[in-house]
Structures are given as C-alpha cells and as structure tokens.
Design brief:
The structure holds 2 protein chains of 2 kinds. Chain A is built from 13 helices and 18 strands. In chain A, a hairpin with a 2-residue loop joins β17 and β18. Chain A is α+β, with helices and mostly antiparallel strands. In chain A, the strands form 4 sheets. Chain A has a 6-stranded antiparallel barrel with strand order 6-8-9-12-11-10. Chain A has a 6-stranded antiparallel β-barrel with strand order 13-14-15-18-17-16. Chain A has a 3-stranded antiparallel beta sheet with strand order 4-3-5. The radius of gyration of chain B is 21 Å and the shape is extended. In chain B, α4 runs antiparallel to α5 and α5 runs antiparallel to α6. Classes of the chains: A alpha+beta, B mainly alpha. Chains A and B meet through α8, α9, α11, β17 and β18 of A and α1, α3, α4 and α8 of B.
Amino acid sequence: MELIPSDPKQAGLQMTKNHRGLSDKHFALEREMDKRQTLECVTILARALRDFEEFSRSDRERYLQGGLTQTDGDRAVCAWITERYENLARIAREIVPVGLTEATAGRHLRAPAWALAILLAGHASKWRKISGQRPDSATPGRLHQLFRSARDAKIEATVQSVTIERRFIETTVEALYVRALLLERFASGNLTPRRLEILDTWLVAWMGALWLTTEPADGGATLCVDTENPMRGLTLLAAGETAELYLALRPLRRQLERAVEYFHQGIIFPGWGIALSFRMEEHVAVIDFVERELNMIEHATALKSKRFPIGQKSRVSVFFGFSEIFDRALFKQSTVTTSAGLNSASSTSASASGSRTGAYFAPAALRFAALAEADGGLTNDFVRSPVQLLDISESGMGLEMSSDDAAKVEVDELVAVRVDEARPWVLGIVVRKVNQRNDFSTTVGIKVLTKVPMRAALELVTDRPVRQTASGIFVAGSATHGFADSIIVSDATYRARQVVAVTIASGHFHIRLGRVRYQGPGWKMAAATVLEAR
Amino acid sequence: MDPTSDFLPAREGAVLDVSKVQQDAGTRRLRDRYIATRFAQFSEPGIALRHTSEILRLARQLLDDDQARLATELLYLALEEDAQQRRIWLFLIELAFLGEDVTQFSELADGFKARFMMADDRDTPESLEEEKVVAENNKIIDVMGIELAPNDPRYANAGAPVMLPNWSTPDGDERNEIAQQKLHASLLDAMAFHVALHTLQAATP
C-alpha cells in the first residue's frame, strides 16, 4: 500500500522512522516463519502483535480521539496501522496448519494458530473501515475457510487465550469467528470510527455469548451463516430457508442489557480499552445502534428498505443546518403560521417570517408564484461543488460531495435535499460520511425524517404581553394518534422549554415541546404534545 | 404502540437492586452523564428522575414512539433513584402484563408487595388512605397475575376480573388525545396541500 506523504507543518500524527522500522521488522519476521514450527511461529507472531499494539496505542488513541478534521499525517498513520494489521493477518493465515483432522495427534496444541489468524482478520477488517477503505470482499471467504479448517480439526471450541488491548482473554476460535463476522455485518452501517471501536470492545467482552448452532434457536431472532459461500457473512434467515449454522441473538440482547446496567452504575462498559476515554455520547450512540440493529433483525422488517442506485448520478439541491434549511430551503414553502386565536396576548403580533407568514392561507395564485421562484441547484454557501444523488430508498439516501465540502458537514447535521423539482424538499439527518478511494469525494449517508417538512412560524407562549417568535419545522409521525408528531426547533428555543402557539390549516394549537427524538448541532426534534386546540 | 411488541427487556437478576446506584462522586457523575445523554431532556437526572409525574409522562411518550425498551429503562432508572415511586412500579407492572412477560410481571409484583405492604407503623390518615390505595392496587395485580399465570399460587386469592387500570397512561391535562389527533389531521391536510401545489407547479409548462 502506498502511504500518503505527511506534511510536517501540520499538527497531528506523523509517520516516523520508528513506524518504518517496525514495518521492516515485520518483513524480516515473515521471512523467518518458513524455518520454524507452527507453535513457535504463533508465539513469535503473538509477541509481534503485542509489540505493534503497544507501539501504535497512542497513535490509535489519538486518531480515534481526533475530530473530523484530519491532517495528511493522521491519514498516513491510520493507513499504516491498517496495513500493518492486514500484513500480520496475512502472516497469521499462512501459519495455520492445513489438512488437520480430529485424528491428528497434538492438534489442540496448534489451535492458537487459528485463534490468532481469526483475531487478526477481525482487527484488519475493523481498521480498514476506520481508515475509510471499502470492506475487503475476500474477508468473509477467508474467515469461513479458517473456521472450516478449525472444525475439521475439531478445535473450534477449544479454549484459547488471546491478548486484546493488554488484556488476556479466554475465548474460542468459534467466538472469535463470530466476533469478526458481527464486526463485518454491523460495521457496514453508519458507525463512525470511535463507535466502531466501542462496538468491537463490546463484542470482545461478549464473546462468551457468541456461539453458533446447527439448528435455529427456539423462538427469538436468528442470523445464519453459510461457510461455503465466500461472498456472504452473517445474514438474515429468509422464511422457509435452512442454513448451515445459526447465531441466536437473544444472548446478544442480554449482553446489551448487561452493558446498559454498567452505565446505570456509572461505569463505562466494559471498563477497559481505548474506548474508555470516549465521550458518553459515543457510547450511547452505540447502544442505540445495536438496539436498532437487533430490532431490525428481530422484526425482520424493512427498516433498512431496498436502495435503488441512481444510474446516472443526478445533481440535487441541498442545504445543511437548521437555520439554512428554514430560511433558504423552505423559504418558498407554504408556512404553517403563528396562532392568533388561543388566549393570545398578541393577536396582532409580528410573525417570525415577516411577509411570508400566512402563506398557507394566501390565495392559491400567490402560493403558486412563490413556489415557482424556487430554483434547483441551491446549496449552502460553503458547498462549492455539485452534490450528486447516488442512491435512494424509502428511509434513506446517499449523496456524493467533494471531500472539502463534506468536511464542513457533521454527522447528525440536519439536511434538506430536493431530489425532484415536482416534490417538496426531503428532510433528513446526516448519519455517515465515508471518504472514497480517490480521496476527493465523500459519500454522505442520510436518514430521511420526512418527505414533506412543514415550515412553521411559532410563537412562544408566556405570560408576557409581547411574545417572542421562533422558527420550527413540523415532522408528522406515522401514527394516527398524533403523539408521534414532532417539531424541529433550535437548541435555544428548546432550552426555553416553551409552550408554542401555531396555526395549521383551520386549527389553532398550543403545543408543548416534549421529549427529544433526535438532535444534532444546534437543533432538536421534540415531541409535539398538544395542550389545547381550537 | 404495537400491542404485539415485547414491552419489557429481560433483565437478569433481581428486579431492582438500589444498592447498584453508586454514591461516590465519580460514578455518580458518569451515571448522570449517561442518563442526560440517553434521555436528552434531563440536565439534572438525579432530580428529574424523582419527579414521578414527569417520568410517567415521558415514559408514555416513549411508548407512543414505539420505544418500549427505552421507556422501561427510564422507569427502572427512576426506581433506582427513588424506589418509593409507587406509580412507576404500577406502570412497569402493567407493561409486563401487556407484554405477557410472566417472569417480569411476577418479579415486579413481588417487589411491589414487599415494598408497599409493610404498613404496621402507619397510623396517620394519609398513610391509611395510602394503604387503602395500595390494597386496591394489589387486588388488581392479583387479577392480572391469575390471568397471566393461572397456576401460580401467589395469585390464588385473586378476585373477580377488573378493567385494565391504565396505569401506563398518566393522569394530567397534558395528554389530550382528541386535540393531538386534530393536530395530526391538520398537519396531514397541510402536507397534502403542499404536495399538490408542487405537482401542479411541475405540470405547468
């Protein structure tokens, strides 16, 4: 792999001669392997792994602790770490004995070779994702091959001791195999590097609950694996299908609850690892993520609905940030207006949006004219290059942006996208950013909140004679009872914990800003609880 | 809320072990940070979790959002802060009943009785009134129990069937179902109008 040259003027991580020296050591070590017995090779390689992890620990910590702004040096060191893990994983695969059966004498003594190879395969796979590289399509096949040969030798359940993050952990080849497969499956989603590191620490702590069965578990959700299929890892079991091996998820659910118990007691689960120093938000985000994944599998519903790739990438208009979306993307939209009817102390009060207030009630011709002014290709000022739509589904979409523009966008940022001029803006949240191989473009994953956001001019209801106005965007929930409806407001508005007044269609409402359903930089999406309606 | 969803996560061990709530400053701070992050509206979780009506209201909102596990977690956190919050016990008991989780129901029912039935030293009018309420709660719990676990001797003395008490819908003037439906209908109207307008615009040369 070609390393990115680092610029010494930039702060951050730097490739040094020590890094290169360690690479050279690994190269020399690899050449020695042919001359030695399996067990000796395993011992040497395990020691090399420990040395490498000690050497790279501060780099890994600093890289993961770093924000979205990365220097060339950061990227170079991260690429080097990934390359080292991949290199060690390859060496480990090569020392795994071939053709052992349950009749082979002393086969258990050689079991650590499998453990090390599968452990390193998991590490390499994780760091590929952390460094922003696409998953290696050969990984599932390699893992299956290692596991099949371990099963042939009947050593997959032999207890092994491996070292992970300075801890000696007793586990089995099977548990390490499942950990690597789960990493592959879960990490293909929207996990940031920090969250992926947390998840991996949890999976390591949960290895005691990671075992496969030849029959599906009675009740409860199950994933399955076909070790003969090199293209697929853990997959959902389709109705009526059978599989070679099954992974019951109930034990995983219990492990997650155990992790939550730790947090209730004021302990960062599991109490060790690099992730220990990450902010609480990161840990809670992983809880949310695992819960969502387990729910999706358990209910086997299309929470992740089918994505349709856009053949010819199409240019779309896009705005990021609550204020920009409210003021510019939804500028021409019909506006749900401030109430003037409910115990209002300011029936003649000024509205939040000046002359646009009341557009919903304006004559159709005026509304039409306003909409007609809306133009395609609109973006925030900082977005310099065109934004392309890559794929779209009922619940999400993928955009391609220049990396420079994408660097200014945070995960959890609010985003509005106009996919089709004949449709309203789609409102969503940025859930992931992945640098593409060319390093010039970034794929931005978006979770759709609503396809018809409703701009609202709110009035903060207080005892004061003159009321403040505020901006809001309504997001209608799917439930007919209405308790799933929400309003997106700025942090400042939410902090005030105001009751707001608003008029929608022919109804006047006093609404309390309730539970926060989603939040991001500067905004919160709160439950809209109606206190009074007319 | 989907009535078929499993309302309660299986929790290992005892229903509630208040001793798990650490009192030293470091762990207390981490616990508070966790709660404040998980439930974004709590800036001071230690105080907020003792506001029974607020917790009940929020738990109800979470159920409305199909977030039953999160609602359950919140209720347990509140009990960990103050296990005397009787209405929170009842909320959890009703959720376990609706979720047909026999184990969880029984553990909660036992915990509730153990905590609230020891009334020997109560002799003020308020406590006598409270005792009456608790006795009534227990009767209902037994009826629920016999329906969930007909062979369980703990509920052998259950009385006649009763209406579901609706402990999981808190009282108060902030849950106006008709008004909420009206808001939802108005929003849908406004959205439909908005979509139609866009379609009209697109169809016009």
